[in-house]
């Protein structure tokens, strides 16, 4: 029952994360990359701090150096670098394609989980990797003699793929922290407190680059739609999604958790059609189908968590 609860948490987390593509697209033409990230993180903190109350101070005092290092790495890969690559990519490619390409996260996570956590790659997961790579090639138009992207469009897709890699690192680092806590029989960090600290660290990382973009003038010209997009990005895409993510990763292994990231491309593609009026071509649809298929295959027969724990204990 605990694992099924984890499934629900992860599905909700990635469904909300998928809306980041559309929310980001609504403001990328007006605001700088780091201004968007910093503003959304500020709104996230406004929503999180009142909920934490005194528990944040208690969590702060009992955290080890290893806990702090993992939170810093999660903030770096899961928020700072992820948003930098995604938002820069959205300046050059469509929201629909960006959403689909984020579906490569499960395949990348399977490889990283194998290298760092020693989670096995069975036949189904290998087929999932092949399906994912094929989907990427289809979206990039490498199998077509008629579909050709501009260099800028191609770079945009590559940047989104870099964001997916950062998300995969975040997945594995988060799972590693949960396993380490289990091995030393320590209480797991409260998901809300953990989210608050990661958001705070990420905000500190974004502030310097954001100030360099001189955001004051751009923020003054932002319309109601842009402000609503930033608030949504902060309260739901960041605060609520990360709380659900941490609650889910405490119950599932890294590869299974990554499989639910297929909700990101599904949500992003659907919203890009409904809200942004984009019209993906048949290659984008087929590539998206291959990537989602790869997501499903990599999520089947999840690795034995005990084996992963034994590996980390040995190290």
UniProtKB/TrEMBL annotation:
Membrane-spanning intervals of the chain: 33-56, 68-86, 98-117, 124-143, 155-174, 195-212, 224-247, 254-276, 282-300
Q: Which residues form the EamA domain?
A: 6-139, 155-298
> Pfam families under this entry?
EamA
Keywords assigned by UniProt? Membrane, Transmembrane, Transmembrane helix
Chief localisation class: membrane
Tell me how this protein sits in the membrane.
Answer: Multi-pass membrane protein
Subcellular location(s): the record lists: Membrane
Tell me the domain of life.
Bacteria
Member of which family? Answer: Belongs to the EamA transporter family.
PANTHER family annotated for this entry? EAMA DOMAIN-CONTAINING PROTEIN, INNER MEMBRANE TRANSPORTER
Name this polypeptide is given: EamA domain-containing protein
Q: What taxonomic ancestry is recorded?
A: Bacteria, Bacillati, Bacillota, Negativicutes, Selenomonadales
